[in-house]
Write a structure and sequence with these properties.
By secondary structure, the chain is of the alpha/beta class. The protein is 22% helix and 27% strand. It has a nine-stranded mixed sheet, covered by helices on one side. A six-stranded antiparallel sheet has the order 5-6-7-10-9-8, covered by helices on one side. The protein has a two-stranded parallel sheet with strand order 4-11. A hairpin with a 2-residue loop joins strand 5 and strand 6. The protein is globular and about 60 Å long.
């Protein structure tokens, strides 16, 4: 499909720079088979049915942005995928000043050697020393806010909490699974009281999620791989939900993509551990999920293509036009949509 089909105009003032407070006070646009209506996230228990199950990504964002020097050159690095105990693949700013074998000093006693430059311009960074890389990042790194927020304001102390979900447990993501940012303990308790369950899986979101689609046709776009895991108990539970007449509702496109990677043509979800580079566009037949809660996405992005695959391109174009006209807040810190085909 032509990528231009997924383009739209978004006024810059629609980009949220801070999350709603409290988190579940964010607006939520509900789209189901019968209607499109405005709601708020705290109303979610009335929008779902007893027996449904929400699936959250329990990945934890690490301080994956680093600023350093190689000689007299300033080098910026955004880690996006672990390749070994002390080795991370990273997108590099000022990459023309970096060569394989160069050492980068990130300050605070943190250094890494660049190697294995890839076709996309990224390098592998091999961190020196014996300390766990997570400790090094806590000293020298900062929270990797999305570029559309970072371009408008600096990262600050609030982001250390704002950009983590209440489910964050497994460290390794360089971007938050942002649909889950809307949840609070009170909302989770209300959902449980309404007979709506929840489960967790892990997908470590990579910085590739923010990369624009540069190809003219979706067939020519290469997705970056991300590591994920669904254990046997979670797979069994989700299959049981559907067998009992409930719906599996992915909270975030990361949860959805991992479930779809684990589901077979028979619509059975199986245990999964490894990389996934699944790319979902209109025409895809969903096998593992029955709905999606997600934020509003970038024009021409793989994520807008995904929601268009779920609900139909014309329906999502109309929904986004309504959201823009009605003042919804977009992107990572923005409002939500609940898509129930």
């Amino acid at each position: 499909m032509q990528v231009d089909l997924f383009d739209f105009e978004l006024p810059p003032e629609r980009i949220a720079l801070r999350p709603a407070s409290p988190r579940d006070a964010a607006r939520m646009l509900l789209l189901d088979a019968a209607e499109t209506r405005d709601a708020i996230v705290s109303e979610l228990p009335t929008c779902l049915r007893p027996g449904d199950c929400l699936v959250f990504n329990d990945t934890r964002v690490i301080p994956a942005q680093l600023e350093g020097t190689r000689g007299d050159a300033r080098i910026g690095a955004t880690l996006h995928k672990r390749e070994g105990p002390r080795r991370w693949r990273a997108f590099i700013r000022n990459a023309k000043r970096l060569r394989e074998g160069d050492a980068i000093d990130f300050g605070s006693g943190v250094t890494a050697t660049a190697s294995d430059r890839a076709a996309d311009g990224s390098f592998a960074l091999n961190f020196a020393g014996d300390e766990p890389v997570e400790l090094l990042l806590e000293r020298a790194g900062r929270m990797p806010l999305p570029p559309y927020i970072a371009a408008k304001r600096p990262t600050d102390e609030r982001d250390a909490d704002d950009y983590q979900t209440m489910f964050a447990r497994e460290a390794g993501a360089v971007a938050a699974p942002t649909a889950a940012l809307h949840f609070t303990p009170g909302l989770l308790a209300a959902l449980e009281a309404a007979g709506i369950g929840h489960a967790t899986l892990t997908l470590h979101v990579g910085a590739g999620t923010f990369l624009p689609v540069k190809a003219d046709d979706t067939a020519d776009h290469a997705m970056h791989a991300e590591w994920g895991r669904i254990d046997a108990a979670t797979a069994d539970r989700l299959n049981a939900v559907r067998a009992g007449g409930g719906r599996v509702i992915a909270v975030g496109t990361t949860s959805l993509r991992l479930i779809e990677s684990a589901a077979g043509e028979d619509k059975v979800i199986r245990p999964f551990e490894g990389d996934t580079a699944i790319f979902i566009t209109p025409g895809y037949r969903f096998r593992g999920i029955d709905g999606l809660m997600t934020n509003f996405h970038l024009p021409r992005s793989t994520l807008f293509m995904l929601v268009s695959a779920l609900m139909g391109l014309e329906r999502m174009q109309a929904a986004y036009a309504h959201a823009i006209a009605d003042g919804y807040r977009f992107y990572s810190y923005g409002d939500a949509s609940l898509l129930l085909p």
